């Protein structure tokens, strides 16, 4: 049953197809602590669910913001 909802696109997905920003712990940059603060400002917590496409969008946008900060 598709009972997990993506917070961004609001489509329903299988629970195993859902991601959270906790997966950003594994990227080298930006640091996870920065990511958590960044998403908090957007109203997103570590427990919010996203589909693969939306988590990848969040990943790209946050990475771009991080790079802009360093210039
Ligand atoms: Zn989505």
From TrEMBL:
This is HNH endonuclease.
């Amino acid at each position: 049953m598709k009972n997990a909802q993506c917070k961004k696109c609001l489509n329903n997905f299988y629970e195993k197809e859902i991601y959270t920003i906790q997966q950003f712990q594994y990227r080298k940059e930006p640091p996870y602590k920065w990511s958590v603060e960044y998403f908090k400002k957007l109203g997103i917590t570590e427990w919010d669910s996203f589909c693969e496409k939306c988590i990848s969008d969040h990943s790209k946008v946050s990475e771009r913001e991080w790079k802009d900060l360093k210039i």
